[in-house]
């Protein structure tokens, strides 16, 4: 027992199958030349925003607890700041997820199709997805303009409400772009791609980029 | 035609009762139909307000406290002791106030909204874990307030520690003692079961929760004169209905609470006890004027004049 | 309109579109039909933003973050080693422990998604190693996490209590009975599963070994202590507890165990952000879709057609159960409660049903619906966190759904399962 026990303990210390080891250091854009450089830079920015958003959220929430419990004074802006961070994380994340082929889909029927059908279907899926992402980019920009005109402010921060949504149109746009690039990639290459540099297949090994 | 009307409370709460009466009147006196959307079914307060501004909703009920982020002057309703404490005088105030009936409609119109009426929802009382008879009793009490700068100012001036907490966490927060108090009208304390997790209800007369019903302005202006009159009459009828409904509501809600929790302690502060609370009002007034400038000062002064008119 | 939209959504879903697309296209079609064009699509964006606005949602990324740090480091392993030394020799012991841990964690955190992550991510690898089938594990985690709806504090019950004017304390107590009954049935099923699939057991640990594993788990045992102590001590809310756990996890893994460096922290935070985004975009799209359903008054139209006014108590309860079950298959539970409860309120009143019983049944249906395909937040969370395909996550679900449906039927015919404790405490 003790040997098996020891092994399982070792295993548990190193087993990270449940977590995601996507590392931007390893992300290499498949785009040629200057476009590739830009793509790499955007990927880098997205991952920094994601990490910073999560860390700031933890910091902000804990600061509020400490302020209230220790100093008898709450941070009134705490909730509004977290709202801003959630929007930031969600919209920096959807384009990052598109880049790494991580959006959730139900692929059972798709997987059962022969690859001669899967290819055109994947091109259609990515193009349709791109159209709706770009559409939402447009309408979320419109929504922000409307909020800008109305001038509503956040009660505690007293800053205009539209500012917290600023990541929405950007995120939708970048996501739409990722899906367009994926469609093009699928048109050019022989294999089938989930995103510009992730081949289809939903295995742990393949997704650990 | 089908008109849509959204409000911030459940169907059986004050805003819902007003909306139902309005619906009844409109449908009895015209061919129009009204669909009612209670709290949460189309989003939160700010969402339904925006939807009314875009014309998706024809009517919306939003309390000035929430409108404060759009129309800063609307926060005047958070200045303590600005509204009459006597029910008869209060009704008279809402009927006659120049600030409410003439000045606010202009401010709302700038936001694309036709202000149809404002009405009181009931005296705001505090529910706490310990008795409150003076500001000293609020010392070190973490008191949940809406995230509104003036409300925060008020409770700071009362001596409490104003604490923001999302509404969904208030019940649990009182239960586990993160917060030790919150304020709301009696009917709302009853319907949201806040009495289950507190032991004292104290009424200091510092405020009466006010709410406002609006129509999308383009929609309203586009109505025939006949329809406009019909809508205004329906509002009038609903207003009268709600004031009457209010008459016993505070007491009925108290009875319900007593029945459900016999050892609940109710306290109505007398004039002597209210004085120290009343004295804090001036600092809140200052904060209000600082936030809203001349336009706010004008409203505040008019509200005071209106108050004078009904209390003299 | 409803039929068209649901059909389009199911087809897109089956074709393998990213899951957000059926919800987004469903909303686009809804807006187009309602307003004769795309002129009001800003409101769709507004509702997507409203979907990710609730302050309590931040518990999800925070618990993902904390769980990820614990799993990468030593905390999770030490905790599980301790549990295993006590239950590893019992057949199905690990599965039962997982179900119990989900129930307990759900009870304090109040968030089903957070439970999926916090309990699921450390325990799933160990269950895999112990020889359980992945689809059983995933279904066990998702469904056990949904017991959190029934055990207080329960946000669903609070909302129901406010909308229906029912005592929240009574609801809380009434949820405990059915919640524990479900846990018991899940445990029995797990045991049967382990026996039938011949899941191997470990050798029984000696008390010396148990003492040793417990000692090694002392630091990580601070997690439950901090969560429970902090919440019931009035120091922080269940939502804030998540962030405090992050702080403690960072402290343990960076300072005490020295398992995590700054780069590791950065990577973990980024991966947390990614998982959060993948789930929250679905929450956002789901909120926009819910708005369309609510605005078009689709539930009212459907319910008007079935003549609920003529039914007796049992009939009404059955209709309510089915309506909430179906509603939650497509739409966020909280919205379903807000929209449907007022519609049913007069009927419930007329036939003289106990609103506490109705609330418990509704909460149970909401819990079932959240774990039932096609749309369910907990399913999405499991997919994103465990990186398993959709079908893997839902494949093992049927036995659990069957158990849950049996409990809801039992509740309808034997209301004392819910009301016994309530009557004991309040009557
Ligand atoms: Na719970
Ligand atoms: Na579902």
Automatic annotation (TrEMBL), chain A:
Q: What's an example GO BP annotation here?
A: C4-dicarboxylate transport
One GO cellular component term noted in the UniProt record for this chain: plasma membrane
Tell me the Pfam families matching this sequence. Answer: DctQ
Tripartite ATP-independent periplasmic transporters DctQ component domain sequence ranges: 57-185
Subcellular location field? Cell inner membrane
Write one Gene Ontology MF term: transmembrane transporter activity
Q: Where is this region: Disordered?
A: 1-25
| This protein's UniProt keywords | Cell inner membrane, Cell membrane, Membrane, Transmembrane, Transmembrane helix, Transport
Q: How does it sit in the membrane?
A: Multi-pass membrane protein
Q: What does this protein do?
A: Part of the tripartite ATP-independent periplasmic (TRAP) transport system.
Q: Cite the record's note on assembly.
A: The complex comprises the extracytoplasmic solute receptor protein and the two transmembrane proteins.
Q: Which family does it belong to?
A: Belongs to the TRAP transporter small permease family.
Name assigned to this protein: TRAP transporter small permease protein
From TrEMBL, chain C:
The membrane topology of this protein is: Multi-pass membrane protein
GO terms (molecular function) for this protein are: transmembrane transporter activity
Where in the numbering of this chain does the TRAP C4-dicarboxylate transport system permease DctM subunit domain appear?
A: 7-417
Q: Which InterPro entries match?
A: DctM (IPR010656), TRAP_DctM (IPR004681)
Quick one: a GO cellular component term?
Answer: plasma membrane
Alphabetical keyword list: Cell inner membrane, Cell membrane, Membrane, Transmembrane, Transmembrane helix, Transport
Query: Where in the cell?
Result: Cell inner membrane
Query: What top-level branch of life does the organism fall under?
Result: Bacteria
Q: What parts of the sequence cross the membrane?
A: 6-35, 55-74, 94-123, 135-160, 172-196, 217-235, 241-260, 272-294, 314-344, 356-386, 398-421
Its subunit composition reads: The complex comprises the extracytoplasmic solute receptor protein and the two transmembrane proteins.
Protein family according to the UniProt entry: Belongs to the TRAP transporter large permease family.
Q: What does this protein do?
A: Part of the tripartite ATP-independent periplasmic (TRAP) transport system.
Q: What is this protein identified as?
A: TRAP transporter large permease protein
The species is Nitratireductor basaltis
């Amino acid at each position: 027992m003790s040997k098996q026990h020891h092994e399982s303990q070792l295993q548990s210390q190193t087993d990270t199958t449940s977590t995601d080891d996507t590392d931007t250091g390893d992300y290499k854009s498949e785009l040629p030349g200057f476009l590739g450089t830009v793509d790499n830079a955007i990927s880098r920015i997205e991952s920094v925003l994601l990490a910073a958003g999560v860390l700031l959220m933890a910091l902000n929430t804990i600061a509020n607890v400490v302020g209230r419990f220790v100093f008898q004074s709450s941070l009134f802006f705490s909730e509004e700041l977290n709202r801003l961070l959630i929007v930031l994380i969600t919209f920096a994340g959807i384009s990052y997820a598109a880049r790494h082929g991580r959006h959730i889909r139900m692929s059972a029927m798709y997987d059962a199709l022969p690859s001669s059908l899967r290819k055109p279907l994947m091109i259609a899926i990515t193009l349709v997805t791109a159209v709706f992402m770009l559409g939402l980019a447009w309408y979320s920009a419109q929504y922000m303009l409307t909020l800008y005109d109305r001038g509503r402010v956040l009660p505690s921060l007293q800053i205009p409400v539209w500012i917290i949504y600023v990541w929405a149109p950007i995120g939708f746009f970048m996501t739409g772009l990722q899906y367009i690039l994926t469609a093009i990639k699928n048109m050019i290459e022989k294999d089938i791609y989930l995103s510009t540099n992730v081949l289809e297949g939903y295995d742990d090994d393949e997704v650990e980029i | 035609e089908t008109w849509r009307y959204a409000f911030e409370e459940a169907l059986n709460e004050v805003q819902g009762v007003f909306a139902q009466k309005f619906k009844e009147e409109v449908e009895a006196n015209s061919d129009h139909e009204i669909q009612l959307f209670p709290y949460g079914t189309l989003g939160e307060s700010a969402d339904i307000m925006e939807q009314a501004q875009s014309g998706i909703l024809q009517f919306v009920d939003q309390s000035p406290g929430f409108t404060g982020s759009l129309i800063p002057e609307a926060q005047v309703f958070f200045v303590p002791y600005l509204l009459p404490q006597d029910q008869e005088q209060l009704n008279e105030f809402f009927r006659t106030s120049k600030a409410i009936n003439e000045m606010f409609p202009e401010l709302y119109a700038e936001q694309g909204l036709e202000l149809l009426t404002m009405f009181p929802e009931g005296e705001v009382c505090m529910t706490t874990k310990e008795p409150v008879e003076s500001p000293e009793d609020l010392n070190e009490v973490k008191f949940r307030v809406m995230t509104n700068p003036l409300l925060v100012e008020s409770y700071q001036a009362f001596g409490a520690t104003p604490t923001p907490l999302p509404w969904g966490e208030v019940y649990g927060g009182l239960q586990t003692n993160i917060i030790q108090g919150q304020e709301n009208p009696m009917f709302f304390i009853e319907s949201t079961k806040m009495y289950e997790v507190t032991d004292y209800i104290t009424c200091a007369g510092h405020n009466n929760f006010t709410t406002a019903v609006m129509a999308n302005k383009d929609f309203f202006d586009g109505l025939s004169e006949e329809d406009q009159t019909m809508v205004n009459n329906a509002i009038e009828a609903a207003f009268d209905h709600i004031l009457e409904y209010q008459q016993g509501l505070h007491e009925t809600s108290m009875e319900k609470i007593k029945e459900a929790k016999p050892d609940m302690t109710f306290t109505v502060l007398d004039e002597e006890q209210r004085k120290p609370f009343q004295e804090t009002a001036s600092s809140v007034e200052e904060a209000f004027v600082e936030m809203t400038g001349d336009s706010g000062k004008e409203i505040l002064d008019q509200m005071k004049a209106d108050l004078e008119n009904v209390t003299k | 309109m409803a039929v068209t939209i649901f059909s389009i959504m199911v087809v897109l879903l089956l074709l393998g579109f990213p899951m957000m697309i059926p919800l987004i296209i469903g909303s686009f079609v809804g807006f187009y039909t309602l307003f004769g064009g795309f002129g009001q699509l800003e409101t769709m964006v507004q509702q997507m933003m409203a979907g990710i606005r609730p302050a309590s949602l931040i518990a999800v990324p925070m618990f993902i973050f904390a769980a990820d740090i614990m799993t990468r480091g030593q905390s999770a392993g030490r905790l599980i080693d301790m549990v295993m030394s006590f239950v590893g020799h019992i057949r199905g012991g690990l599965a039962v422990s997982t179900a119990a841990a989900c129930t307990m964690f759900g009870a304090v955190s109040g968030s089903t998604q957070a439970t999926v992550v916090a309990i699921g991510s450390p325990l799933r690898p160990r269950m895999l190693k112990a020889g359980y089938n992945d689809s059983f594990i995933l279904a066990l985690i998702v469904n056990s996490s949904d017991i959190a709806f029934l055990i207080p504090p329960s946000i669903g019950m609070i909302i129901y209590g406010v909308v229906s004017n029912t005592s929240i304390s009574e609801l809380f107590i009434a949820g405990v009975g059915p919640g524990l009954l479900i846990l018991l049935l899940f445990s029995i099923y797990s045991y049967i599963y382990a026996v039938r699939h011949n899941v191997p057991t470990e050798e029984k640990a000696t008390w010396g070994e148990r003492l040793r594993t417990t000692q090694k788990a002392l630091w990580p045992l601070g997690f439950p202590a901090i969560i429970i102590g902090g919440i019931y001590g009035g120091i922080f809310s269940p939502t804030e507890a998540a962030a405090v756990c992050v702080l403690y996890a960072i402290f343990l893994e960076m300072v005490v165990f020295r398992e995590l460096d700054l780069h590791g922290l950065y990577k973990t935070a980024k991966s947390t952000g990614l998982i959060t985004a993948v789930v929250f975009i679905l929450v956002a799209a789901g909120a926009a879709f819910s708005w369309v359903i609510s605005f078009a008054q689709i539930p009212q139209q459907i319910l008007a057609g079935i003549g609920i006014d003529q039914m007796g108590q049992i009939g009404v309860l059955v209709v309510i159960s089915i309506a909430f079950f179906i509603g939650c298959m497509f739409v966020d539970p909280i919205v379903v409660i807000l929209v449907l409860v007022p519609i049913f309120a007069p009927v419930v009143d007329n036939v003289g049903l106990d609103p506490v019983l109705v609330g418990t049944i509704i909460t149970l249906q909401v819990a079932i619906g959240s774990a039932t395909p096609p749309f369910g937040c907990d399913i999405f969370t499991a997919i994103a966190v465990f990186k398993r395909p959709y079908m893997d996550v839902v494949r093992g679900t049927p036995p659990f759904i069957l158990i849950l449906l049996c409990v809801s039927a039992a509740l309808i015919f034997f209301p004392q399962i819910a009301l016994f404790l309530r009557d004991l405490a309040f009557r």
